[in-house]
């Protein structure tokens, strides 16, 4: 063999080795596109799994038949003599709520704990001779029931002349108010045990990150510069579809994002919370008992919030006695029973990884709902999917969608199929789909 031929042969051998290396490279060295997806923090992931919470609104408005504090109610007239925070927790549990957010201070500025920052607080009302502490009572009730507690501390404070976001109407008083608010937040977060959620309605125009880091490092934060969850954008308890969990940082002021800003190509995890009212108003009124939502209305809300990957925060309104009205408590229990009845025990369920996840359905039972969950700890990967059912040896598509996220509920209507098996087909995804749960449910 000539020198030239030997060189060619050696070159051919090297080329084959290079080709073999290239063939192996995708499996062992090519970056997984899912690695760059935003992922929830442990606190966010735990919050997703709570799914339903109970909001509690009680303030001077309760004595005014108003949604806004007029500041005209004498504190001597505010005396919720039968107030029982254990009752609030019982109602929450009967509803299937897994956490409570209490409005400790609303926009009027009245505080339901004995703050050292102002006399406009529970210390100045007749209830318990001025020695009461509603936030303290509720924190104790929640600890006994192992119910996570969150707190709403309004940055707006009308009694101190401060508007939305904590901006003083008189700029000369801005620094003083910021000191007052920071003191109030410090009291709440350091004296009442760990908070799992902190609400800043209307966002914040100043920073309290140091207080949150020191006293609520594991809390999710609603609005403000440290926001880790976002407002869905309405007060109807309904998330749009798709309600992507990611947003693009810098698209707008942080803390002002809503579900409309969801972006599957986003770079920050910022999930949606759907706040809603069991009555037509946030506060109890003498004239709106007839607005109490029906169980079908509440179930529709559940399926269009939790069933679209969001968390539902459903408000209750203690009356002037301090108790949640009996009719409201009964409706909460009926709602909880309906969720448990319809979504408590699946006909069949499985989990899996990859673009096809199969599920055997025993006994050809009728199904009318399909529930899918991603393992969001690894990011929201699915971009499009369909569900096929084998009925009488024929495959039919019974559901389609784009986002799955924490949970997607699809109703199989108007037909109620009796499939022998189902297959979840992922039509588009970033990386390998990771399905935490595929479950089917039938008519109750």
Offer a concise description of the structure.
The protein is α/β, with parallel strands linked by helices. It is 25% helix and 22% strand.
Residue ranges: pLDDT <50 for 5 or more in a row? 1-14
CATH superfamily of the largest domain: Glycosidases
- Count of helix runs: 8
Overall mean pLDDT score?
93
**Share of helical residues:** 10-25%
- What Rg, in angstroms, do the CA atoms define? 27 Å
CATH class of the largest domain: Alpha Beta
Q: Main sheet: which strands, in order across?
A: 5-4-3-2-1-10-9-6
Q: CATH fold name of the largest domain, please? A: TIM Barrel
Q: Give the tally of structural domains.
A: 2
Instruction: Give the structural class.
Output: alpha/beta
How would you describe this structure to a colleague?
This protein has 444 residues and is of the alpha/beta class. It has 2 domains: 42-343, TIM Barrel (Alpha-Beta Barrel), CATH 3.20.20; 348-441, Sandwich (Jelly Rolls), CATH 2.60.120. 25% of the residues lie in helices and 22% in strands. The protein is built from 8 helices and 18 strands. It has helices at 3-28, 42-50, 85-94, 134-145, 174-191, 209-215, 295-303, 326-343, and strands at 52-56, 100-105, 149-153, 197-199, 220-222, 230-231, 246-247, 268-269, 272-277, 311-316, 348-353, 356-360, 369-374, 382-391, 394-401, 408-411, 421-429, 434-441. An 8-stranded parallel beta sheet has the order 5-4-3-2-1-10-9-6. Strands 11-18-13-16 form a 4-stranded antiparallel beta sheet, with no helix packed on it. β3 (149-153), α5 and β4 (197-199) form a beta-alpha-beta unit. α3 (85-94) crosses α4 (134-145), α3 packs parallel to α8 and α7 packs across α8 (326-343). The protein is globular, with a radius of gyration of 27 Å. Mean pLDDT is 93; it is low at 1-14.
């Amino acid at each position: 063999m000539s020198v030239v031929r030997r060189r060619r042969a050696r070159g051919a051998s090297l080329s084959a080795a290079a080709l073999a290396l290239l063939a192996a490279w995708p499996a062992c060295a090519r970056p997984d596109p899912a690695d760059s997806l935003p992922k929830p923090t442990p606190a966010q992931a735990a919050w997703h799994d709570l799914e339903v919470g109970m909001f509690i609104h009680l303030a001077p408005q309760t004595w005014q038949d108003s949604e806004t504090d007029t500041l005209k109610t004498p504190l001597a007239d505010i005396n919720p003599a039968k107030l029982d925070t254990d009752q609030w927790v019982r109602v929450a549990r009967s509803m299937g709520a897994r956490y409570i957010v209490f409005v400790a201070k609303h926009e009027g500025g009245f505080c339901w704990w004995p703050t050292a920052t102002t006399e406009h607080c529970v210390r100045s009302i007749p209830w318990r001779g001025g020695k009461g502490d509603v936030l303290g009572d509720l924190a104790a009730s929640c600890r006994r029931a192992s119910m996570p507690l969150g707190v709403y501390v309004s940055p707006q404070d009308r009694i101190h002349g401060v508007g939305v976001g904590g901006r003083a109407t008189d700029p000369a008083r801005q620094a003083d108010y910021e000191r007052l608010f920071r003191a109030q937040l410090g009291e709440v977060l350091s004296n009442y045990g760990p908070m799992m959620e902190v609400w800043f309605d209307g966002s914040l125009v100043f920073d309290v990150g140091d207080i949150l880091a020191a006293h609520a490092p594991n809390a999710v934060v609603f609005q403000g510069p440290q926001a880790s969850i976002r407002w869905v954008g309405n007060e109807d308890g309904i998330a749009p579809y798709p309600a992507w969990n990611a947003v693009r940082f810098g698209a707008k002021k942080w803390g002002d994002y809503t579900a409309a800003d969801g972006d599957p190509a986003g770079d920050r995890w910022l999930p949606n919370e759907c706040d809603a009212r069991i009555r037509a108003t946030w506060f109890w009124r003498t004239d709106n008992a007839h607005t109490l939502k029906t169980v079908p209305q509440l179930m529709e809300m559940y399926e269009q919030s939790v069933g679209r990957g969001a968390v539902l925060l459903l408000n209750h309104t203690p009356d002037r006695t301090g108790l949640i009205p009996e009719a409201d408590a009964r409706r909460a229990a009926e709602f909880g029973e309906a969720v448990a009845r319809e979504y408590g025990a699946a006909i069949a369920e499985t989990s899996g990884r990859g673009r096809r996840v199969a599920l055997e359905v025993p006994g050809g039972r009728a199904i009318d709902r399909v529930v899918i969950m991603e393992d969001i700890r690894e990011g929201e990967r699915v971009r499009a999917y369909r569900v096929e059912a084998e009925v009488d040896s024929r495959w039919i598509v019974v559901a389609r969608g784009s986002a799955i996220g924490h949970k997607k509920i699809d109703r199989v209507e108007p037909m109620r199929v009796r499939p022998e098996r189902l297959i979840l087909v992922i039509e588009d995804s970033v990386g390998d789909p990771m399905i935490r749960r595929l479950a089917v449910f039938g008519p109750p």
